[in-house]
Amino acid sequence: DVKVTQSSRYLVKRTGEKVFLECVQDMDHENMFWYRQDPGLGLRLIYFSYDVKMKEKGDIPEGYSVSREKKERFSLILESASTNQTSMYLCASGWRGRDGYTFGSGTRLTVV
Amino acid sequence: QKEVEQNSGPLSVPEGAIASLNCTYSDRGSQSFFWYRQYSGKSPELIMSIYSNGDKEDGRFTAQLNKASQYVSLLIRDSQPSDSATYLCAAQNYGGSQGNLIFGKGTKLSVKP
After folding, report:
1. Residue of A101, A102, B5, B44 with fewest CB within 10 Å of its CB?
2. What distance in Å separates the CA atoms of residue A98 and residue A107, rounded to the nearest whole number?
3. What b/e sequence results for B73-92 when a residue is b if at least 16 CB atoms lie within 10 Å of its CB, and e otherwise?
4. Strand, helix or coil for residue A84
């Protein structure tokens, strides 16, 4: 089975802190994605990457950056955490094709 | 703006009944379609994919696709309380946006014992 592993299940950070969310997949997938999910707003795409060192902005990239130095790892960085970034963060990976994405278990981030 | 629309629900059905979940999509170039199930507090899990017009069955689940009407549905037969979850519909266009999935906001299903 494909595994997408997110480093933390729950995180509590203070306003202004730099926050790193890590995601690792074990299936050599080309594409990796970061979403946030909030009640009533559905899944919103923050950034995605279709190759090492490549990144593309999604729908809501402001306040975030990403890094993909190795194919299996995709990191989401909150440069200066704010309370409106309190959310569930979901990483996903997949082929560019027919198989859909596999999601990690998610990180529930609370910024206080 | 490419969109996938779903009724947010909640859709309530009695145990043993057929649950019918629907979605429409705006991008006529979409080629692949997926249904994800998401339990409260958990991440989405892929349960069905469909690529051709018609029906695709997997156990108690049947996905239906009508590209002319830009309509996708998921039928759950013999619904169980354990099917209570939010169901996300997604569409994919290989040629656009690197083949990213476009997700609907989900339909919440409640199966009453």
Report:
1. B5
2. 26
3. bbbbeebeeebbbbbbbbbb
4. helix
Asked if B107 and B86 touch (Cβ cutoff 8 Å), the reply is yes
Query: What integer pLDDT is reported at residue A100 of this predicted model?
Result: 87
CA dist list (Å): B80 to B47, B77, B111:
16, 9, 6
On the question of pLDDT at B96 being above 60, the answer is no
Tokens representing residue A32 in the block: 């990796």
Neighboring chain B residues of A31 at a CB cutoff of 8 Å: 98-100
Q: Which pLDDT score, from 0 to 100, does residue B9 have?
A: 87
Q: pLDDT tens, B26-83? A: 999 899 999 999 999 999 999 999 999 999 999 999 999 999 999 999 999 999 999 9
CA atoms within 13 A on the CB side of B99: 17
pLDDT the model gives residue B18: 98
Nearest to A50 among B43, B46, B98 (CB): B98
* CA-CA-CA-CA dihedral for B37, B40, B42, B43, to nearest 10: 40
In the prediction, which pLDDT does A19 show?
97
B94 to chain A: closest CA residue: A97
Look at B43 and A104 and tell me if their CB atoms are within 8 Å. yes
Whether B20 and chain A come into contact, CB under 8 Å, resolves to no
CB contact under 8 A, B90 and A100: yes
